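Bit of a strange request maybe. I'm writing a small parser for structure token strings and I need a real example to test against, not something I typed by hand. Could someone generate the tokens for this chain?
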Amino acid sequence: MKGVIFTEIRSMAYLPIFAYYWQISNFKTATAYMAIKPLPDEPELLAKVARGDEYAFRVLFEGYYQNLGKYVFQLTGSVSIAEEIVQDAFIKVWLKREFLNEVKNFSNYLFILCRNHTYNEMQKKATERNFIDRLSLRVIDQGKNENPDTLSEKYRELVEAAIEKLPPQAQKVYLMSRDERMKYEEIAQALNISPVTVKKHIQYANKFITAELSLKLNLVVVGVLMSPLILS
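Reply from user aminoacidic:
Good idea to test on real output. This should exercise your parser:
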């Protein structure tokens, strides 16, 4: 598991920014630990997932998804980024499921997985915005649990390719819902169509994309990729 992140920052003027985020992350991680309890019969669920049980994985995913999403959203301020980070974490869990028996504290493992992915995203944003001249990120690998060569990016490319095949209006409605997080009524008003029509477009898009992905991916991965993060 990639449990410790060290940052080498050549422009030392920006060190307080990352120190601040690190402190905030540790506080919010501790708060999240207190708020989220292990699932009932979790050891049994993990053992089943390690043997490839897809239903057990779905129970595990649904049990943690929303709460983990809330934690990552606190760090990123973006629902779509939080959704992607948590989905990627669970895809890693599924791809490396045979090692789950080695995980002593699954909730702790998930939080570290999501936290590290979040910091990778922070690093990208900092570089893009020229907050620092040079930044290098070194990660010390403390175990086998995290797969550094994740296939998540390729999976998401397949999702985007499927969206490109949608009819123009269905594609537009779907992206307004997914990317802009607009409600049915808001989309209907913007496009001058009825909420019922919006609902039909989204249902069609979800069904079409799922069918396209199912030709290339395991249904477990499809289910993760097609699960929206809803923060209440």
